[in-house]
C-alpha cells in the first residue's frame, strides 16, 4: 500500500516527539521505558545491515487507526488512533538463513526483572517461533546499573511458567546473571547480541 | 513497551475505519488497494499459525506519531500522526527454520503489474534478505480477474533492473504467467503460498 506522508520527516523524530509529550505517568513510562535500549538496538541493526551481517528490523508500533483526515490530498493526517498491544515481539529478521526473533525490555529495578513487562501472547509467540526452529530470546537492560543481558527463550519460558504456577512474578537478577549472557556496550555495534547467538547456535 | 488501549476494540475494525473514510483519491486507493488480499493473507497466516505450519505476521502500518493526548490516564489518544513509507516488506516470519519475507500487492490492470507499487527500499530490502539466505517473494493479485500469483524475488529484481535501465515500468501479465506461480484461492488456507515456496525450496 502506498501512503502520502510529509517529506523530510524521519522516524527518528518520533523519539523527540515522545519526549515532548506532557509529563504524566503514561508519558513518562512511554518516553523513558526502552528508549535508550531501542535506539542502541536500532543502531546495532543498522550496523548489521550495512555490514551485511544480518537483516533485522524493529516492527512499527502497532496503532489502531480510527479517523484519518484526507482533506489535504498531499498528506493524510491521522486524527484519532490508539496504541495497540503487540501480538508478537518487537524485533525479527534473518542472519545467514537463521530466523531471529526477540523482545527488548528495560527495568529500573536493581534486583529483578518483573515479568509483567511481557504479555502472555508475546510468550506464546516465542513458543511458536521456537517450534518452527526459529531463534527467540530477550534482551534485558537494567537501566540503573546500565547492564545488558541476553536471555534465551527457554529460560524465559521456565520463569514464566514458574509465575503461572504461583511462583514469583519476576526473574531475579541472580538468575539472569546465572543463565543469561552479559553484553558489554560497544561502539560498533553497540549491542552485539548476534555474537552471542552465533556462539550459542554455532553458525 | 506497554500501551494503554481501549478494550474490546479489534485490529479488524481498522479495515472498517478505512472504508468509512471520505471518497477522495487517497481514501479510495487506501481502502481498495490490497484490502481483500490483505484479509485473505491474514486469514491464511492465522491458519498456518494454528496448524503449526508457520509463524508469519503482517507488520503494523508504519505511523509517525507527532502528538499524543494523555489527558485520560486510561487511554492515550494519538491526535496527530502520519503514514510513513514502509522500509521493509509487509510480511515476514519463519517456517521450519526458513526465514520467509514477502510483499503483497494488487492491481486493477488486466494486462500488467505496475512497478510503482514498490518502493526502491523495499526492493533493496528483498536483496538484503536473499543475501542472508532468506526467502523473498511477492504475491500479486489482479483484482479484476481475481487471479493471484507468487513471483520469486529474482524475477522481480530482473524486471526492476529492466525499468531502472530505461525499460518498461511494469511487469506484463504474460511475464507473470510465464515466471510466476498461480495460486488458486482455497478455503483453508485461502492463499496457500507456502505450498509453492516449499516446492521451490524443497522443504
What does this structure look like?
The structure is a homodimer of 203-residue chains. Chain A is of the alpha+beta class and 203 residues long. Chain A has a domain at 36-60 and 86-201: Trna Endonuclease, Chain: A, domain 1 (3-Layer(aba) Sandwich), CATH 3.40.1350.10. Helix content of chain A is 35%, strand content 28%. Chain A has seven helices and ten strands. Chain A has helices at 13-20, 25-32, 35-50, 120-131, 153-164, 173-179, 193-201; strands at residues 55-58, 63-69, 77-83, 91-95, 98-107, 112-114, 135-142, 147-152, 170-172, 181-183. A six-stranded mixed β-sheet of chain A has the order 1-4-5-7-8-10, sandwiched between helices. In chain A, a hairpin with a 7-residue loop joins strand 2 (63-69) and strand 3. In chain A, helix 4 crosses helix 5. The longest helix of chain A is centred in the first third of the chain and has 16 residues, at 35-50. The two termini of chain A are 36 Å apart. Mean pLDDT of chain A is 86; it is low at 1-35. Strand 3 of chain A pairs antiparallel with strand 3 of chain B, so a sheet runs across the interface.
Amino acid at each position: 500500500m502506498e501512503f502520502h506522508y510529509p517529506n523530510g520527516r524521519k522516524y527518528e523524530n518520533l523519539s523527540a516527539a515522545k519526549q515532548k509529550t506532557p509529563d504524566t505517568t503514561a508519558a513518562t513510562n512511554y518516553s523513558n521505558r526502552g528508549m535508550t535500549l531501542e535506539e542502541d538496538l536500532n543502531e546495532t541493526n543498522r550496523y548489521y545491515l550495512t555490514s551485511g551481517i544480518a537483516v533485522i528490523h524493529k516492527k512499527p508500533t502497532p496503532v489502531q487507526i480510527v479517523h484519518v483526515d484526507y482533506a489535504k490530498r498531499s498528506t493524510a493526517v491521522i486524527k484519532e488512533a490508539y496504541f495497540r498491544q503487540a501480538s508478537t515481539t518487537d524485533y525479527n529478521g534473518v542472519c545467514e538463513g537463521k530466523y531471529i526473533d526477540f523482545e527488548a525490555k528495560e527495568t529500573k529495578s536493581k534486583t529483578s526483572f518483573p515479568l509483567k513487562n511481557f504479555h502472555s501472547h508475546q510468550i506464546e509467540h516465542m513458543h511458536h517461533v521456537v517450534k518452527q526452529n526459529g531463534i527467540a530470546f530477550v534482551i534485558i537492560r537494567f537501566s540503573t546499573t546500565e547492564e545488558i543481558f541476553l536471555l534465551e527463550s527457554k529460560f524465559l519460558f521456565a520463569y514464566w511458567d514458574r509465575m503461572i504456577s504461583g511462583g514469583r512474578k519476576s526473574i531475579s537478577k541472580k538468575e539472569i546473571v546465572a543463565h543469561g549472557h552479559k553484553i558489554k556496550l560497544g561502539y560498533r555495534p553497540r549491542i552485539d547480541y548476534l555474537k552471542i547467538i552465533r556462539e550459542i547456535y554455532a553458525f
